[in-house]
Amino acid sequence: MKLNIFLILSLVYTLVFGQVDQQRVRIDATFRSTKNILFVANAPGSSHVTWVLRFLDELSARGHNITMVTVEENLKYSYSHPYLNTVSMGSSNFDHKRMMEGNDSHKPFLELFPVLFDAFIPGWPKEYRAILEQIEKNKADVLICDFFSNACMEAANTKQLPFILTSTAGLFPDAAPPYINANMFAMDEYTTVHQSIYRRFFNKFILPIQVIWKTRPILERMAKVKRESGLINARWNDDPNARSIHAVKLIGNMFGPEAARPLGPLVEFVGPMLEKEYNGLTTELKSYLDARQKVVYVAFGQHARPLAHDVERILTSLIHQLEKGHIDGIIWSSVLAESKYFPTVITSSYSRKTYSTASFFDGNKGKVGNILDDIFVSKWSPQMAILLHPSVHVFVSHGGANSLFECLYAGKRLLFYPFFGDQPGTAKHLSQAGVSEYFNHLTDLADVDEKVEKVILDREGHYQEKINKYQAMMQIQSKSAPIRAADVVEEVAFSSQGTLMPHREDVSRSLSFAKKHNLDIYALAIASFGSIFIIISLGLVKLVKTLYHGYHIKQKTKTL
Predict the structure, then answer these.
(1) Same structural domain for residues 254 and 371?
(2) Is the separation of the CB atoms in 268 and 477 below 8 Å?
(3) Is residue 316 a part of any domain in this protein?
(4) Rounded distance, CA 435 to CA 547, Å?
């Protein structure tokens, strides 16, 4: 009895006090050592640079050395990142004026492609040499290449270094099942959901022929430049995705703005990434917004170039809304906010009045004594600060990635007026999802008015309800986005083998086509079931013959 009491007391003591002396063990990362990371962007524009700098901030905070090699126009984005070592490759050859030749600001990508390549080809050898030099100088461990920087990819392959591709759109084969339009020449719609069989047939079989016909001369020039730079095997018909087939792709986006679909193991959606801080409102803009309650903000980013006919189409519809009292202000922000890119007059089909646009540019802004006093025209505006102001209700946008993310983060309703590239696809995708409406340079003017008024009034609140959901998604995802992206970069830096990431390689690449798609077992199943069917059929035939023969004999016997 005493022994039992002793055992019970010992057990109670152990349960109550046994863990008092046990120490907690802390888990700390021990893998990390300083890596040298090279980021290359040869295309001018914030959407190629600013979001990447956000996760480079995080990598720098983790102790890694960061160097950005870019064109002169992008250096301004690095000023608020003092840790960053920047190297200029000189000015880009990007010519916005040539993109607008023929008075067309809405050229299809097939027509823009030669213009873009003409901008990149002359500087390609210099970029390639500069990147190779910086790889050696910085003893680079990993390269991060903007999607447009072909020279970066080639340099990484030349040096057998791992590299990561960055893009705000999932344009890669391993992010595009058959129902996703990852072809840049067919990106006026992101998916085939709303496409007819004829359109899908055209995109699959006819469009590639047109692309080859149109792009071969420029691709031959590019291949020649590469061969002269030492890439002796370069050919015009090289698969553009072959160089990056083993590269990790960081997409600065998320599902919602991007169509949902399965992704390959080398693709990571790590967006959206927004700046930590933005420029505030100017005194003039703050006074303008504080004095109003229902403002529409209009902006088209850095590369879209609205011409006079675009301005007239959009501004006329917005003036109708001013005249009806549905809005009380318009902020128009465009790099082409000049009289030569504006129509001389705007005629309202609602009031039958004609307004001169001269006051926007002759120093009489806000002094003409009519409805144009409520229109604020500027070449540049602090976009995020404007969108966050409570007086701004609707954003008319071209559909660029940064503008879209900032608008959704701020929770403002959207109207799209797309120009080129992935902008029409973004506009259609979000409009089909009920988030926005879109119109373009071909939309009937009555339809433009209807869509603009529909979003501005939002009588049933459907658009704002959708926007609020996207705002929540945007704010949730953006909070940890730089950390997620930096984690992937470190994974590449510490686990790659040459240019490969073996643990992320899709196992299907080691399988034959038949085994990958289970064609061999389907063939075996067909052969097996076919054999069984044949055997059973032959048996049935034999049985029928036997029965028939027996029946025939029986009948003869009866006759006898």
Answers:
(1) no
(2) no
(3) yes
(4) 72
